[in-house]
Amino acid sequence: TDAEVSTRKKTFAEVLTEQLDQAERTVLIKCPSKLNEKKLLQYLSSHGNVKSHFFFENRGINALIEFSEKSSIASLQDAVGIPSASEYHVVPFKSRLFTFTLKNPVSQHVEETPLHLSPQCHIPVKDLIEKLCLADSISSQMYILLNEYQLTEENIKLRFLACSLVQDFARAYFPDSTVKPFGSSVNTFGKLGSDVDMFLDFRDTGKHAAKMKKGPFEMEYQMKRLPSERLATQRILSVIGDCLDNFGPGCVNVQKILNARCPLVKFSHQPTGFQCDLSVSNSIAIRSSELLYIYGCLDSRVRALVFTIRCWARVHGLTNSAPGTWITNFSLTMMVMFFLQRRSPPIIPTLDQLKELADEKDKHIIGGYDCSFVSDLRKIKPTKNTETLDELLGEFFEYFGNFDFRKNSINLRKGKEVNKPESSPLYIWNPFEQDLNISKNVNQPQLEKFVAMARESAWILQKEDKTQQIINKEPWGLAALLIPFGKSNSSRMKNRMKGMGSETIRSLLDSLKLNNANSQQKAVGK
């Protein structure tokens, strides 16, 4: 029953289905600047019941409107006109994006109540640090960070709407297809401002199988045949990419990257403000999203620690949005999960333990890999571990500051340090494709930098005199870790450098030279 579902934690599939359904009943309206909220809602209600709505800023004021019935959208679309553009000619594609302007703006100069605008990006780190200094413990600092950075309900609705608008194009060719978000938009670890990863799904939900058994004939569609699945993916994405580029309102900077390991179309979706990546269904990526969703739902400390470590890594240049030899956020998240599996008692179960709890409907074999694990959160016993986040943060830096990366790899299936199968500096087993290392891109200097920063951070947390720092109005606890090191404590940093290989120091010096060269280059270019 619905009531029963709302009291327990929903499964990943339930959440997804619910949000996809909401998105199909949703429209986005660019509003006039002097807007009376009551009048807008009153007008919209003439087309059907408005179930929820919010306003946000993005090149002006916008409203996301969710109707109770999908039919209300058709009713509204009937009333909307085509723009009478003189200098442009329009592509007459009728989407769920509208612009409303007031017919007689003069009479409505009175603004009763200012609109509440829902924030779609997080505060800058320096503002965060000020907030953190007001907290009373590291644990509350970490929850403040989580609250500032995590996706809001509104932002998630906007992400699903972006997928739903792309789905409208896909369905022009493939009426049964769906476009779903995966990765950080749905795994509970997404940060405000992050990209939207979406994939195109053609899999018919099991409805078909039952029908096919009836009757005396084996029946199948005649379909175009291509030599490989990859080629089919490339062709489909190429056409849908062109479609978005040519007809998609507000889809700009469309790039087709069809020769990548996973072919994709990148584009900017101006109406929602998201940078989007569209690919074709990747079952393993979806299983990873669900695994993280489960870990994120099991214990509130999990997300607080992950958001904290990722913010810390970004501040110290350990992660970077550009691809390269840096540790990725995904690798970092997996390192946090592994650390939480290693606590005594463990805070989250290993993947093998989750697999043992799986029943028939949880069975997933993908490309020969067993990707089964339990989906019902009620079957997972809560942890007996009572450590505070204050303790866990220090212990995380301590653990990885002293981890034997030369010999050991990180394996979330077993929750154990396992001998490295090959010599990559950092080896983290892909939880599902067991022969892949998700951190293969990381080089030795970057790993050593991570270790040095972890040691420095553990040291700062241990040595700290909180009361004194609060009296002196100095950043303390987490706030002290989010200020780039070496600003105030370069001599201590030199001591930390002692353990580093000469190769690392050389590469750090090289990167400084590079930075210098770059800034000179820029200066010359002006």
Automatic annotation (TrEMBL):
Name the GO terms of the biological process aspect.
RNA 3'-end processing
| Origin superkingdom | Eukaryota
InterPro entries registered for this protein in UniProt: MTPAP-like_central, NT_sf, PAP_assoc, RL
The RL domain sits at: 11-79
Which metal ions or organic cofactors does this protein require, according to UniProt?
Mn(2+); Mg(2+)
Keyword set includes DNA repair: no
Q: Could you give one GO CC term from the UniProt record?
A: mitochondrion
Residues in domain PAP-associated?
Answer: 391-426
Where do the Poly(A) RNA polymerase mitochondrial-like central palm domain residues begin and end? Answer: 138-296
Q: Which GO terms describe its molecular function?
A: metal ion binding; poly(A) RNA polymerase activity
Going by the UniProt record, its keywords in alphabetical order are: Magnesium, Metal-binding, Transferase
Name assigned to this protein: PAPD1 protein
